[in-house]
Write a structure and sequence with these properties.
mainly alpha; 434 Repressor (Amino-terminal Domain)
């Protein structure tokens, strides 16, 4: 994932959480202009500590953030959970059906 994609996705999860840039900055104990600068100037990336604070404040897991299909994450995880509960025979039958 490129720097630009990471910054764009941070903005996406912030908006989905209905947080203004200022509100998110305050939630993560950063200067109120921090998120604005991150999203508009794109001249730096947050530290890992701040990145995880952003995810937490936006109620987004790292797994979902980095998942290849961000919007399909919940339905994919639901399918995976159901698949995990199947017997091995049923898993193989389902895989054969899908192919």
């Amino acid at each position: 994932m490129s720097k630009e994609e990471l910054i764009f996705k941070i903005g996406t999860i912030r908006r989905e959480a209905n947080l203004s840039a200022r509100a998110l900055s305050l939630k993560i104990d950063m200067h109120e202009s921090y998120i604005n600068r991150l999203e508009t100037q794109k001249d730096f990336l947050p530290s890992l500590e701040v990145f995880f604070k952003i995810l937490d404040a936006c109620n987004c897991s790292a797994e979902r953030f980095f998942y290849h299909d961000y919007n399909g994450f919940n339905s994919d995880m639901e399918l995976l959970d159901k698949f995990k509960s199947l017997s091995e025979d049923k898993k193989q039958a389902l895989l054969a059906f899908i192919k």
